[in-house]
Design goal:
Helix content is about 35%, strand content about 20%. The protein is an alpha/beta fold. Keywords: Metal-binding, Transferase, Zinc.
Length: about 300
């Protein structure tokens, strides 16, 4: 089974590619706001910052390296947190386009989805009648036809370009149990070296459902497949964010929060910031007898190359 650690890594996903500006005034999309919220989340206890970019003019999803350049150096200068650059971004772009920001930045970590899947946000569109920007409603409604492509060839390409080429380690995002088997195959093929960092993801339409039985099943499967060669974390989307994170801490796992995954701080109450979510989960983690990992401790646990070896 995965190694029982003494410290809990908190990852904070700052803005993502699911929620739109209409849904919350707290969702950052201007580079200065992404930077400010990321730094505040790190100060609150997040040792890893999972980062997407947005078009600063209208908040739409961006994979333009120029947009990343406007906040990554600012964050690095202000905090020692591990910076994790998304390779997801738009679901409609090629893998080469999706990894362009990471190839420029050469970060310590990148996210990597471990399988193709339906990935839809279209039910969210029915909750709103007025929109801040014209693109938002169509973006959400049209997602019912999206396939988030992550073939074995795509995964091998990312491993070569970022893993071998830049010494990047990955947040292996697993939205279903089959993704764990995909990762095992890739490890057996020599694409990824242990320890791997697996993000169990629950509650995204198209992926495994947000049931505690599913969390236990994913954990048992990972133990069987990876033994002591992995660390794991839990992402619960929407209303299950805090309950799933709390359960993960008691099972020896790490946690992920942030406005990418949920806009709420409690049932019916929007979060004021990413830092508010980090503060809440840190309080829970510590009240339940665990200690929060520092960025340096997270680097050691995940065998990262170090912040001094990035390109920004």
């Amino acid at each position: 089974m995965s190694r029982r650690q003494l410290k809990t890594i908190i990852t904070c996903a700052i803005t993502g590619a699911i929620h739109t500006p209409t849904m919350s005034d707290a969702l950052p999309y201007r580079p200065e706001d992404i930077a400010d919220q990321a730094v505040a989340a790190a100060e609150a206890g997040a040792s890893i910052l999972h980062l997407h970019a947005r078009n600063p003019e209208n908040g739409s999803v961006s994979i333009d390296p120029e947009h990343f350049k406007r906040f990554l150096p600012v964050i690095k200068q202000a905090t020692d947190a591990v910076i994790n650059v998304s390779t997801g971004g738009s679901l409609l772009n090629t893998m080469e386009e999706r990894i362009a920001p990471a190839k420029w930045a050469s970060p310590e970590m990148c996210s990597l989805n471990m399988g193709s899947m339906n990935f839809s946000m279209h039910p969210l569109a029915d909750r709103y009648t007025e929109w801040k920007f014209d693109w938002e409603e169509d973006y959400l409604r049209n997602s019912d036809s999206y396939i988030f492509r992550n073939t074995f060839a795509d995964i091998a390409y990312v491993a070569e370009q970022l893993g071998e080429g830049h010494g990047v380690k990955f947040e292996h995002e697993c939205y279903d149990v089959g993704h764990l088997y995909n990762l095992k195959f890739c490890m057996d093929s020599g694409l990824f070296k242990p320890p791997v960092f697996i993000q169990f993801i629950f509650g995204i339409l198209g992926g495994i459902g947000p049931d505690i039985d599913n969390l236990i099943f994913m954990k048992r499967t990972a133990d069987r497949l990876f033994g002591d060669n992995y660390q794991w974390s839990v992402l619960g989307a929407g209303g299950v964010q805090m309950p799933f994170a709390t359960t993960a801490t008691q099972l020896g796992g790490n946690v992920r929060v942030g406005l990418e995954d949920s806009l709420m701080i409690a049932r019916g109450k929007l979060a004021k910031s990413n830092a508010e979510q980090v503060t809440k989960i840190r309080h829970i983690v510590e009240e339940l007898g665990c200690e929060v990992a520092t960025p340096e401790e997270a680097r050691e646990m995940l065998d990262l190359k170090g912040g001094d070896r990035t390109a920004f």
